[in-house]
Design a protein that fits this description.
alpha/beta; 26% helix; elongated; disordered C terminus
């Protein structure tokens, strides 16, 4: 498959990689691409989560003087198709897009819509990739560019990286930074190959090897289950950490439940028997950290990694108990609490 470099792209999505893809196309004197993105309210959330960290996030509206930017509610709508046709778009490239491409637009731009995904497809289709990797102790980063079809991340592969391993202490932030660097290398290779009119070696995905996990919404699903084994709680907390909003639980204060978020923890195993009544109890506090009992040991949590939803709250934590709320567990679709047998 050869794509003439004179063709015009629409870049669909937002963020760091889209910003750099625009720069790469500009470097090779491609016809100036247009940008199709989602509603501005979602961009505000992205900026808040990333804290405008330029290693992690780039605001595409910084390109407003260089490119036409269209905010749309649906990539598949007649209005969006009219925008693409009016601007003589021949190819689309999806980067961190919230849109799902449907039959009509895929047929209109057959094999001319591309997407970049931070996994080795067909493994890890879907979203929430880095959180799930931390949960499952898979400490590597990678990326794939593929053709978009009607399935979620199911299209034919045109470029793919190797696995690059990462520290076992990594948080989602570290996965994102390293994956962005890997993905940027693929994007540079993609644009150069188009410029040189080289053929892509298309590879069909093997469905038997495919895996899929749904999007993980940290605000909704990030409630800590203190009945889990300590190592699982540690990984859960880390998987919900920066740049995401953090795992959460509650503490009692003046007969009210105060919500707090935890962004990191270290599990310390203990072979001694711990009574279930004590799970979640804070047994140690100094000026830097606390220790919380779990079923098979304790969690060491630095105070700087604990954020109260009410930032003005300052309370002594020693002797109190961290807990979750039944209604919150039901809301987050977490299954019934684990039951452990003590010997």
């Amino acid at each position: 498959m050869i794509i003439p470099h004179t063709n015009k792209f629409a870049l669909v999505g937002h963020g760091y990689l889209l910003f750099h893809l625009f720069d790469e196309l500009k470097k090779y004197n491609f016809e100036k691409p247009i940008i199709i993105t989602h509603n501005k309210k979602f961009h505000k959330r992205d900026i808040n989560e990333s804290k405008n960290d330029k290693k992690l996030f780039r605001n595409i509206f910084d390109l407003k003087h260089e490119a036409k930017i269209f905010c749309v509610n649906d990539i598949n709508s007649p209005q969006t198709l009219a925008i693409l046709k009016k601007n003589q778009v021949t190819h689309l490239f999806s980067v961190s897009s919230r849109f799902i491409f449907k039959k009509k637009i895929i047929k209109e731009y057959q094999k001319k819509i591309f997407n970049i995904h931070g996994s080795l497809l067909p493994n890890e289709r879907g979203a929430g990739t880095y959180t799930y990797r931390i949960f499952n102790s898979n400490y590597f980063c990678c990326s794939t560019i593929h053709i978009v079809n009607e399935g979620v991340d199911k299209g034919q592969i045109i470029l793919q990286s190797n696995k690059k391993f990462i520290s076992r202490n990594s948080l989602p932030y570290d996965f994102l930074i390293k994956t962005n660097n890997i993905s940027l290398s693929l994007i540079k290779k993609f644009t150069r190959m188009i410029y040189l009119k080289k053929k892509f070696k298309i590879k069909k995905q093997k469905e038997k090897k495919a895996t899929y996990l749904p999007r993980f919404y940290t605000n909704l699903h990030g409630v800590i289950d203190f009945n889990l084994k300590g190592i699982f709680i540690e990984k859960f907390i880390k998987g919900c950490s920066h740049p995401y909003s953090g795992s959460h639980c509650y503490i009692s204060h003046k007969k009210k439940s105060l919500k707090l978020r935890i962004f990191n923890a270290k599990f310390i195993k203990n072979k001694k028997y711990i009574h279930p009544f004590l799970i979640g109890k804070i047994i140690f506090q100094n000026k830097n950290s606390i220790k919380v009992l779990v079923s098979d040991g304790s969690l060491l949590i630095k105070l700087k990694d604990i954020k109260f939803e009410n930032k003005k709250i300052k309370i002594r934590l020693l002797g109190k108990t961290l807990y979750n709320v039944d209604s919150d567990i039901k809301k987050s679709h977490v299954s019934t609490l684990s039951v452990f047998k003590y010997k």
